[in-house]
């Protein structure tokens, strides 16, 4: 069937059902942009709703100082456009946010994406109508739009959370969450600044703010293990080598466990001598990127004794880099081992605490009581600030879905369906929510996100093509298929130290009501295994779905 014929068939079906569009996409980040390109190629009438004023998703919203990649730039961009790969020059091995946003705007320009994107359009609800076999999406401005398919491209970490502290709105100075940073530059020179939170965004922000602030006070509830990024500019010679190597780079990403250029060492921690182990740790610590996390000994995240070895090594590094022994101990995690939570990568982060203009406050020992009009009051002291930065993270994985009133068959709410933990089919479908396709839903393979995005978009697009070619208008996951996949996701978590720790990767967020108990919110299997499962479903004619 030609694209022209597919388009005619899609338009006829949409018109007969009274739909405005064949597909509505929520979000104009990397996944929404690529999905729009593929929907057009299928000849489908599509519309993207984006809450922001521009494309980019994560890289549009997260403009905080120091924001940048922690996976290699050349492994992160889109791989589908060979011409763009040769045209675009990444300036650094780990590109900063402004450069990444320029790149995504370049993609939007090249494919003229904005004509099908409605900006400043935040989705309030999405309801499925089984009679019409389609979705009605209502925006916050009250406007309604109908389509056969609903595709969510809302991201894994896209719903920021503020701490549950009294008085947040009372502060008279400037304050922002890192994921809602102003477009205008913020000048910290001569200012008294507070940063609440020391996760990945907090680490990147702290490194930059400490350079110019008159005084920086960091409120840390839980220290995180951090490792050096080792970023540097890409030379002209490296640029040419990278462009010539893109097929090998993306092939490597397809082969590794989590789509990074790094993958676990086949040796066990105790299969080598202590001297060899120390030398290997030193090599990883001196290497750029996530190698020390995902390229370490194969048993680092399954054997508590092996994890203690690398944790002790990194603790020694922190003590070497931080001059004050008391501060060093405050920065060393005591409640989780190295790599069992998301690993922040840093550039001079620990040296910040050697500066006279930096103070570290333990928010567990002296909790924050409230935000005051002039600053922050803890159980031990009151601080005055000009600026407060909330680096307090996101309601991860399911949070962006919870913010939208999504209702499937018989008016069933998605939030209620997931109350005891997410239940999905391959992270892309939910039983009882027909024609809803999730590009980065819970239980999809994560890691180097764009590699997952491209695969998931291709899988969704192939399903839509299959339905067009066979005159199908409704797709739903079979209950037994969703059950099998959800059980598989749970089995992948067995034995992993990561799932013995409270973090966003285990569905815990103390700033969100009802998310204080660990759940299996993340698929912990390998990306190749995930793709193999999904490929088998497609090759078998989608028997795991009810198609009619």
TrEMBL record:
Keyword Repeat applies: no
Keywords: FAD, Flavoprotein, NADP, Oxidoreductase
Coiled coil: none
Keyword Chaperone found: no
Pfam families recorded: FMO-like (PF00743)
InterPro entries xref list: FAD-binding_Monooxygenases (IPR050775), FAD/NAD-bd_sf (IPR036188), Flavin_mOase-like (IPR020946)
PANTHER family linked: DUAL-FUNCTIONAL MONOOXYGENASE_METHYLTRANSFERASE PSOF, L-ORNITHINE N(5)-MONOOXYGENASE-RELATED
Protein name, UniProt field: NAD(P)/FAD-dependent oxidoreductase
């Amino acid at each position: 069937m030609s694209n022209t014929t597919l388009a005619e068939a899609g338009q006829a079906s949409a018109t007969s059902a009274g739909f405005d569009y064949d597909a509505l996409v929520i979000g104009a980040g990397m996944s929404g942009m690529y999905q729009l390109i593929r929907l057009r190629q299928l000849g489908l009438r599509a519309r993207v709703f984006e809450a922001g004023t521009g494309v980019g998703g994560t890289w549009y919203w997260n403009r905080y100082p120091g924001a940048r990649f922690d996976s290699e730039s050349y492994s992160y961009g889109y791989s589908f456009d060979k011409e763009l790969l040769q045209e675009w020059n990444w300036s650094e091995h780990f590109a900063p946010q402004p450069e990444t946003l320029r790149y995504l705007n370049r993609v939007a320009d090249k494919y003229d994406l904005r004509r099908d994107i409605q900006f400043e359009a935040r989705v309030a609800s999405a309801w499925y109508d089984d009679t019409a076999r389609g979705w009605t999406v209502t925006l916050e401005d009250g406007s309604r739009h109908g389509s056969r398919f609903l595709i969510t491209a809302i991201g894994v970490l896209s719903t920021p959370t503020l701490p549950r502290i009294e008085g947040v709105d009372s502060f008279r100075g400037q304050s922002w969450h890192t994921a809602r940073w102003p477009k205008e530059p913020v000048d910290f020179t001569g200012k008294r600044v507070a940063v609440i939170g020391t996760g990945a965004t907090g680490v990147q922000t702290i490194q930059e703010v400490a350079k110019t602030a008159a005084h920086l006070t960091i409120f840390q509830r839980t220290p995180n293990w951090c490792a050096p990024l080792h970023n540097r500019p890409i030379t002209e010679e490296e640029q040419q080598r990278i462009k010539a190597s893109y097929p090998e780079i993306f092939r490597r990403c397809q082969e590794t466990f989590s789509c990074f250029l790094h993958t676990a060492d086949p040796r066990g921690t105790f299969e080598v001598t202590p001297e060899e182990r120390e030398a290997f740790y030193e090599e990883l610590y001196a290497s750029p990127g996530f190698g020390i996390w995902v390229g370490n000994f194969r048993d680092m995240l399954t054997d508590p004794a092996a994890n203690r070895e690398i944790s002790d090594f990194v603790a020694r590094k922190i003590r070497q880099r931080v001059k004050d022994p008391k501060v060093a101990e405050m920065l060393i995690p005591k409640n989780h081992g190295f790599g069992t939570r998301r690993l922040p990568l840093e550039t001079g982060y620990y040296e910040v605490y050697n500066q006279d203009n930096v103070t570290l406050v333990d928010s567990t020992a002296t909790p924050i009581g409230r935000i005051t009009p002039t600053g922050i009051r803890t159980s031990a002291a009151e601080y005055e600030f000009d600026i407060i930065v909330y680096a307090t993270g996101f309601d991860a994985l399911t949070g962006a879905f919870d913010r939208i009133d999504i209702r499937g068959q018989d008016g069933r709410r998605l939030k209620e369906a997931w109350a005891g933990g997410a239940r999905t089919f391959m992270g892309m479908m939910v039983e009882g929510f027909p024609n809803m396709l999730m590009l980065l839903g819970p239980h999809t393979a994560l890691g180097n996100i764009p590699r997952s995005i491209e695969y998931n978009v291709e899988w969704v697009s192939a399903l839509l093509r299959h339905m067009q070619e066979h005159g199908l208008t409704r797709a739903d996951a079979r209950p037994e298929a969703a059950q099998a996949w959800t059980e598989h996701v749970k089995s992948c978590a067995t034995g992993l130290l990561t799932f013995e720790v409270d973090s966003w990767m285990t569905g815990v967020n103390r700033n969100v009501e009802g998310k204080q108990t660990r759940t299996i919110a993340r698929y912990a299997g390998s990306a190749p295994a995930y793709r193999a499962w999904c490929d088998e479903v497609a090759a078998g004619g989608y028997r795991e779905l009810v198609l009619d």
